[in-house]
Every structure is written in C-alpha cells, then in structure tokens.
Amino acid sequence: MERIYASVVRDHFAHYRQMIFLNGPRQTGKTTISKSLENSADFFTYLNWDIQEDREQILSGQRNLADFIKLNQLHNNIIVVFDELHKYLKWKNFLKGFFDAYKDKCHILVTGSQKLNVAQRKGDSLMGRYFPFRVHPFSVAECIRQTLPIEPISKPASMERNLWEALWQFGGYPDPLIKQEQRFLRRWQRLRDEQLLREDIRFLTQIHELSQLEILAELLKRHSGQLTNYTNLSNKINVTTKTIQQWITTLERFYFCFRISPWHKNISRSLLKEPKLYLWDWSGITDIGTKLENFIACHLLKAVNFWTDFGFGQFKLYFIRTKDKHEVDFVVTKDDHPWFLVEAKYSNNQSISDNLYRFQKATKAEHAFQVVYDLDYIDADCFVHKQPVIVPAKTFLSQLI
C-alpha cells in the first residue's frame, strides 16, 4: 500500500531545503516509505547504519561521503536517506555538518525507529535544520486516500467492508494488515514486543529490570483507556511510584503507548493530573468497549499529529473527566481552543450522551460527536453539525487522516 507520508516528503522536498525526520513505532514502514522516493529523484542514495559498508561510508566523514555520493559532480534532484543513524553516538553532529555543507546540493531524509525521539545526546543543535514528522500505522482515512489534504477535515468516503474489518481486527501496522492472518498476527505481536523491550529499550536506556518492565507493559494492555494510578501499578510490580512514572515515560518514547491528559479549562471540578494511557496497537485488546476507545484514540492522535506536523496549526488531544465522574472520551483542540468532542460507543442503542451537551456548552467546542462503531456508512459531512450528533465511525474516521 502507498503511504501518505511518501507524499508528505515529496511535497516538502519540492518546496523546502530542511531535512525531514520520520519518527514513529518500529514496523510502521518508514524504510519502505523512504525507498519509495527513489522514483522521485534523479539520483538516490540510501545508507543504513546497520549495513557495515554503509556505516563505514558514514564514519569516513562528511567530505568523503559527499565524494562517494558524487554530490560535487551531480547537479540534479538528489535525495540522500540515512536509516538507523541514531545508533551512531555522534549522529546529531554528523547531520549538522553534512546539512550545513551540502544543503544546496541534496535533500536529506532521516528515518529510523522511535529511538530518534530518545537519543537526544549532548551536541550541537539541529534547530532550524529539520522538520519532524510522526509516522503512524494505517488509519481508515489513509486506507482510502493517500493524497495530501488541503485542510484538516476531508470529505467523507466509503471504505471496503473487508478492509474495515481487517483494520479493526489486525490493527494498522502494515504487515499484519496486509497478511490478515490471526496466527501471523500473534507471532508478529510477540516478536515486536520482545524486540521493543529486550532490544530497543535495553540498547538506549539504563533500565535493567526488563522482566518487571514486561509486567508493566502487560498491565498497561489490560488498563488501556483507564485513569493511570501509579501507586497501584507500583504495588503490583514492587517498584517505586517514581520508577513506574519513568518506565511509562520510556514506553511512551518508544511508541508502545501514549498518554492523554485531562482538559480542565472552564470545567468545574475537573481532574487536573491523572492521565489516561492508550496503546499504539489496538489489535491485541480483547474487551470490545476498550478496544473501540483505543481504536478511536489512535485515529485522533494520528490526526492531531499530522495536522500539526503538516502546518495546519497546533492540535492536541485530551479527555474530560470531573471528580463527579462526568466524562467525555476525547477533546481535540486547535491552537489551545477546544474544537470538537468525541464520545465513542460500540452500538447505537443509546441516546446522545448528556455529557456531550454539558461539556460542549462549557468548552464552547464547535462540534460534538457520538461516534458509533456498528452504524453503516452514510455519505454526509459530520462536521456540518454544530449540535451534538450521532455519527457512524466509518464516516467520521474517513474525514480525518
């Protein structure tokens, strides 16, 4: 499948000189995205730190590398890709020097695992020299279209039923989604968790209690979408609360899970601190209601990240919950103002939640949606409604990214 992120990189290189950093979970297809750009360049070079010959070229220094790529001889559209470069201790200094010397001769794409997000070792700043872009698994909208949006919200579009069901069952990571085999999914999930916890985190952190970290990861899978109680988790794993907080931060940085904070402005008796945690991969969640909430959370996070990275504004994702336990699942803000509210429901057997009315009035959000999973697709723009409305998930999610 084509990815929208390939279009993002091509569009960026057509207009700007800054490097692009593609960050995101392992196995979201960042290397495939980068290699797909070969047809967009007159001269294309791909260098992977894990390949010994490529590593030797990088370690030879910027000038020798430029000679190897023939940057001083070529004058056409040149793309240079550095993959897994974060494993080089001096990767930031290397990129700064290479970019400053050859920014007018080539476009530079840096791809790799989530480690780009955590390997912020001391060195010269890359500020102003790159734009980050966060790569997410496939979503409903990306399965339908890969063209770049003109504005945040797109027109609704229908999705093949088989693909919709596959996305729900197998998740948005390319390999399981394409294979659509339950046995392959289980093997893939097990191997991915082992690589994440036993290789990636061990390689780039000082965490040595990997067995206890694995227990924490399993507990978070069972508590997706719930308020995070650090004390309870610390008691179950027999480590300090501070350690739990540090480990969860590490798991976030490696894209195992993500945190959503409560929105509290103009919300009487709102929670102020307790976040909710969701998984980047919803396919392993067994409870239907929990899985749906995580499914919607992943789509909304992808949308706010894309809209922000693409330059549409500053978008963020929150939830609302009061001490009286009144709650709305999600709040999407634009430039620090609530834009729309989302309440996720699996079946359309309930009236519109009173909390959507209550919190739309309190936040002055423009839209409020009760998004229902099992409703059939309708070819109608959800975002024309200004009052709380029930909408099919198939329609609503198709209008995002």
Please tell me about this protein's structure.
The chain is an alpha/beta fold and 401 residues long. It folds into two domains: 131 residues, P-loop containing nucleotide triphosphate hydrolases (Rossmann fold, 3-Layer(aba) Sandwich); 259 residues, no CATH class. The chain has 15 helices and twelve strands. The strands form two sheets. It has a seven-stranded mixed beta sheet, with helices on both faces. Strands 2-3-4-1-5 form a five-stranded parallel beta sheet, with helices on both faces. Helix 5 links the parallel strand 3 and strand 4. Helix 11 packs across helix 12. The protein is globular, with a radius of gyration of 22 Å. The two termini are 15 Å apart.
Instruction: Kindly estimate the percentage of residues that lie in beta strands according to DSSP.
Output: 15-25%
Tell me the span between the first and last alpha carbons: 15 Å
Q: Which overall shape is indicated by the principal axes computed on the Cα atoms?
A: globular
By DSSP, the count of extended strands is 12
Biggest sheet details = 7 strands, mixed
Compute the average pLDDT.
92
List low-pLDDT spans.
118-123
What is the CA-based Rg, rounded? 22 Å
Reading side by side through the largest sheet, how are the strands ordered?
7-6-8-9-10-11-12
Class based on secondary structure composition and strand pairing: alpha/beta
What's the domain count?
2
Order of helices and strands: HEHEHHEHEEHHHHHHHEEHEEEHEEH
Helicity level, as a percent range? 40-55%
